[in-house]
Amino acid sequence: MTIEILKSKIHNVTVTGADLNYIGSITIDEDLMDAAGLLEHEKVQVLNRNNGERLETYVITGRRGSGDICLNGPAARRMSVGDVVIIMAYAHLTTEEAGSFKPLIIFPDTATNKLV
Is 8 a catalytic residue? Predict the structure, then answer.
């Protein structure tokens, strides 16, 4: 048996862009992806602290050091520039693996989306 457990979390970053005409996804600064252990095309859940919206999408690598957090496609209608979001990814682990697993959780500066 496996369970779904938190693998990675970027806690409190500010949305810097919303591109309705893009195919879909969330663009995340590559520095933040590396720090949180996220991979391009990995499925993530995005929680909007401003309006309570939750959505699932996949990651696209953003420009390193840019601080970019951009919601693309339909997600752009549910989150606005300036909203603070939490981005989480999960993994399926056995209960034995989950017992010793520690997720990567990062806390960037909300004003700049840069690592502190």
Answer: no
Which candidate in 25, 80, 90, 100 is catalytic? 25
pLDDT at residue number 69 = 98
Catalytic annotation, pick one of 22, 58, 66, 90 = 58
Which burial class, exposed, middle or buried, applies to 26 when counting CB atoms under 10 A from its CB (0-12, 13-18, 19+)?
A: buried
- Whether 90 is catalytic is no
- The predicted-structure confidence for 35-65, as pLDDT tens digits, reads as follows 999 999 999 999 999 999 999 999 999 999 9
Give the domains, in start order, of the chain with CATH numbers. 2-93 (2.40.40.20)
- Mean pLDDT calculated for residue range 94-116: 96
